[in-house]
From TrEMBL:
Protein name per its UniProtKB record: Transglycosylase SLT domain-containing protein
Biased composition, class Basic and acidic residues, residue ranges: 113-125
One family name in Pfam for this protein: SLT
Region (Disordered): 113-141
Top-level taxonomy: Bacteria, Bacillati, Actinomycetota, Actinomycetes, Kitasatosporales
Residues annotated as domain Transglycosylase SLT: 168-232
Amino acid sequence: MLEGNRVSRISVRGFAVASATAVTAVGSVVGVASGSTAQTNDAAEATAADTTLLADIPAGQQAQVQTASLTQQADAQAIAADASAKKDAEEAARKAAADTAIAKKKAAEEKAAQAAKEAKERLEAKAAASRGGTDVRDSSSFPVQGSYSVGQIQAMARQMVPGGQFQCFSNIVNHESSWNYQAVNASSGAYGLFQALPAGKYASAGADWRTNPATQIKWGLNYMNERYGSPCQAWTFWQANHWY
């Protein structure tokens, strides 16, 4: 209402009280018509008076409220991010553990298979030795492989060398190459199980002498038999001279 040049300003709180009072008055009429107890105007005014609107809060405090709200949101987002990162890390760890277990299992299976194969070859060699080596195998009867272990080479030798001569034969190979069919003497060029010099001597037993230990065994056995009469006689000479 205008009074001269002054305008009466209704505050936000006063407007809220007036509005609440009006609504309550209407509710009172409806309540009476329906038989319910009406809320008094005084109570409505008290309720409206207790209501704090954002507009009623000073500017500085508004900034604090908004900052607190943003801080709470940031904290909630940080907690969610930490939980997500922890979940991802746990999943990655589980996957890595599973991959490691699979790799170990595969390696163990391959090792077991190799050990079983070598054990079978040793049994076959011992069986041949127990029969006195009468059915010794020729080098060509062994399947060609990409590589050979010491156990495999020894098993081959047991099946090619007569039983009574094998230990002497083995003693010489142990001293010459430690059963390494690819051993090379850096100074002389001597090669293989028997350190043949020149290395090409093995070719008389087979063209695959560089990669096939059975061919080298054949050559070494022939050499001992032809030069000394037997592997044991060759071993006797070796012990006296440290060469053969």
